[in-house]
Amino acid sequence: MIAAGEPVAAVCHAPGELRDAKAPDGQALVQDKNVTSFSNMEEAAAGLTKVVPFLVEVMLKEHGGKFSKAADWLPYVVVDGLLIAGQNPASSLPAAKALLARLRPF
Questions:
Q1: What's the confidence (pLDDT) of residue 105?
Q2: Residue 8 phi/psi, 5° resolution?
């Protein structure tokens, strides 16, 4: 989608899907991009650190993403070019609005 010039949005654990995604130049898609996801602290508070296969915050950082977050459970969205990321479920509506603002009309 990014290579086609279309926006991509992911909220909460969904940025984990970007783990193996590559940019057109072959680098990790999140390399040098501003990103967010469900934070390590939110994972711990929810008792999920030993349930999920990997911590999304850790993965994004390991793949070169510039991770940022708000306080736990508050809505937080980061937009970097065509990539839109939301921190947690409370971020769904603002992330959807950011996505709609970037969609090209048919």
A1: 76
A2: -130, 130
